[in-house]
Amino acid sequence: MSRGPSERAMSEEWAAIVGHYEKALKQFGPTPRGADWPNGADLATRFGVMLELLDDAGERPALLDLGCGAGLLLDYLAVTGNIDRVRYHGIDLSSAMTDLAMRRWPTHERSRARTSCRSCRATQWLPPSTAP
User: Where is average pLDDT lowest: 9-18, 27-36, 58-67?
Assistant: First the structure.
């Protein structure tokens, strides 16, 4: 199968990062360790601190999760009862990660699109109203 220009253009540095996280995912699955995070408690603290910014963001703001991986932030939003509080958008360089996230969250409102990002390939989740 032939790779497109944006996929061929992914630098070795980006490819190494993608490979690292895909290896962790393969070893530990869609868990904090699978995202190369030391433990679930620390990851939950990180998410909680980041999401405090939403308190002043108005009604149902858009939330862009850069490096969304397998959708662990969606898991956190669901567990804390906040999944409908935001319009979630995830992007990751690894299509393996986003493919898994979409399998784990098949009913979450989103569609899939591929786009180029300078010298890297990215897979995005976009709400249906903005998908190309």
Answer: 9-18
